[in-house]
Amino acid sequence: MLIPKKPNQIPDETKRVARTAFPKGNMYMDLRDELGAIYEDEQFAHMFVWRGRPAESPGLLALVTVMQFAEGLTDRQAAEAVRSRIDWKYALGLELTDTGFAHSALSEFRDRLVDGGEEAHLLDEMLAQLQERGWVKARGKQRTDSTHVLAIIRSLNRVELVGETMRRALNDLASVAPDWLVSQVDGDWFGLYGPRFEAYRLPKEKAEREALMLRIGQDGMRLLRAVYDETAPDWLWEIPSVQILRQVWVQQYYEEEEKLYLRTKKAYRLPPSRRLIVSPYDPEARHRLKRSTDWVGYSVHLTETCDEEAPNLITHVTTTPASTGDTQMVSHIHQELAAKELLPTEHLVDTSYHDAQTIVDSRAHQVEMVGPVMSNNSWQSKDEEAYDLSCFFIDWDTKTATCPNGKQSISWKPHKTRFGSDMIAVSFSRTDCLSCPTRERCTKAKTTARGLTFRPKEQYLALEAARHYQKSDEFKERYKVRAGIEGAISQAVRAFNLRRTRYIGEAKTHLRHIIIAAAMNLTRIAAWLRRVPKAQTRQSRFAALAPVN
Ligand code: SF4
């Protein structure tokens, strides 16, 4: 298939009519005049096969996709805008008589991006062009923050989860192998798994709910055994909803001596939230409770430039299942910014991104993390008279710690936490501690010795230095700039509905976030070209009266 070349020149007639209709120009015309076509067909050529039905110009579809999100249009409305709006024709370099394309070309284009794992392409190609113009630079300042994204699914309790998982598998099997399925099911399955589980009045008593879950569990096991039986068609087990049924059953039940049991807190606990499937309709969505926000779905992390002399532009977008912690993302963000040659010198983040590990890891990229780190929450650190970790002398060479009473530790044990962080556990002699005259300032344990837990040397020293630095006026002044990322999140939420996804799965949700980021950049460049001043961080009138420290 030959990919039609997207016109690089604006046809004269389009130019003349657009200039008459918009004598002072408008956002899209300004962008076209300044940036040209933005996307080229060649940038997307690798996503297209060279046979089959002719496609629309991929560069044109890419720009229409971003413009569509900038205005919050549906596919039909965007295709209509291409056909009928003069400013769109100007931006796209089309003849006035151009009839555009069928609206389905837009969803096909998005599918191609997801299928090819090219979600980030729309933003990266735009950034490459902005880099050439010097509007985005490496080694400046950037800031990152995240927000929650609700999956397009209902929250389910455990009974509804297993019931709906079974229902979904039965419905899919009924579509592809109805005769086989009818020969496997009992008559009462139609009553139980026919309607949606949300339509049931589920038992209120815990014992009755558990009995219902076990009944569903036994039915599910029977179905799985039938699917995996050698007499069943080979391909049945490959059906995605059957695989989800298998995974949910492994997570929710266990078998002992051929009897099925529910996993509970006491016996064979449920897997951690990062693994726990919460709905058969979006098996990649996860549950998370972060401070007062409780949600099922994803998290999105936005990184933007924040240098004074340039527009603030989104440089990176990451979408993760909700259960992924913010600190886990710092290394990933730095690696991807390095690949785009867009690493900052200063990376401004809040406490959720900033810990000893991220400080040390970011040094490999010559990035300075600027932000508060978690304070030491031990009771000793809150009591001025008590001996907190800083009162102990740590000798990294001899691997010993010396307490304020001059006693030396008797053990030094490096270990990993369940989250994979390196730690060192040190303990003192029980004999020394039990006879210590200042014991009450050191430990509340009545019969055991004082123990310490801290990070390996490089991380420990980095954390101590960060805790010391964050008390300085210089830090407070530098950190003020981070607050601006709240404005970027607010713009994305209010103007682009960032916190709700319309799609199932992480890849499509990520694509949506990428397009939102590209659309935000488009609107921000347009504002920059029109010399619209950058918005200031909002403050209530009362808050503005607060005395400056
Ligand atoms: S309790 Fe033990 S570790 Fe603490 S000061 Fe006394 S001897 Fe040292």
Termini Cα gap: 66 Å
Share of residues in helices: 40-55%
Bound molecules: iron/sulfur cluster
Alpha-beta classification: alpha+beta
Radius of gyration: 29 Å
- Mean of the pLDDT scores? 90
Uncertain residue ranges: 1-7
Shape: flat
Number of helices: 21
State which percent range the strand residues make up.
5-15%
How is the biggest beta sheet arranged? 6 strands, mixed
Please give the number of β-strands: 13
Characterise the protein shown here:
With 549 residues, the protein is α+β, with helices and mostly antiparallel strands. The termini are far apart. It has helices spanning 12-21, 27-35, 58-71, 75-84, 86-92, 104-115, 121-132, 158-176, 178-182, 189-193, 206-228, 240-252, 327-339, 356-363, 379-382, 430-434, 457-469, 473-479, 484-496, 506-529, 541-544; strands spanning 141-150, 253-256, 259-262, 286-290, 293-305, 314-321, 346-348, 368-370, 393-395, 400-402, 411-416, 422-427, 451-454. The chain is 42% helix and 13% strand. The protein contains 21 helices and 13 strands. The strands form 4 sheets. Strands 1, 4, 5, 6, 7 and 8 form a 6-stranded mixed sheet that branches. The protein binds iron/sulfur cluster. Iron/sulfur cluster (SF4) binds at residues 387, 403-405, 407, 428, 432-433, 436, 438-439, 442-443, 449-450.
